[in-house]
Design brief:
Elements: H1 7-10, E1 17-20, E2 23-26, H2 29-40, H3 48-67, H4 69-72, H5 78-86
C-alpha cells in the first residue's frame, strides 16, 4: 500500500536539495519557476529582463520534469506553454 508523502520525506529540515534521477533539485525550485512566470508577464518580450527570466526558466525546467510537476500540472496559458515546451 502506498503511503502519503510528507514534505520532510522529500527534503529533511536543514537540507537544501534532493536528488531525483541524477538531477539535484534545490528547495524553492517550484516557487522560483512560478515567480519567474509571473515576472515574465511584467516585462517587455525579448527585452534584456525577458531574456534573463527565460534563462532561469530553462535552468529550472529539468528539476520540474524530474519531480513530475509538468506531468501533473498543465500550463494554461498557450503562449507560456509553448515557451516552456521549447526550452
Amino acid at each position: 500500500m502506498n503511503k502519503p508523502v510528507k514534505p520532510q520525506d522529500v527534503l529533511a529540515d536543514g537540507q537544501e536539495y534532493a536528488e531525483f534521477d541524477g538531477v539535484s533539485v534545490r528547495k524553492g525550485s517550484v516557487a522560483a519557476f512560478i515567480g519567474n512566470v509571473h515576472a515574465l508577464a511584467e516585462v517587455e518580450a525579448d527585452g534584456p529582463q525577458w531574456v534573463e527570466i527565460v534563462a532561469q526558466l530553462r535552468e529550472l525546467k529539468p528539476a520540474l520534469i524530474r519531480i513530475g510537476v509538468l506531468d501533473v500540472f498543465e500550463i494554461r496559458d498557450p503562449k507560456l506553454r509553448e515557451l516552456v515546451d521549447s526550452l
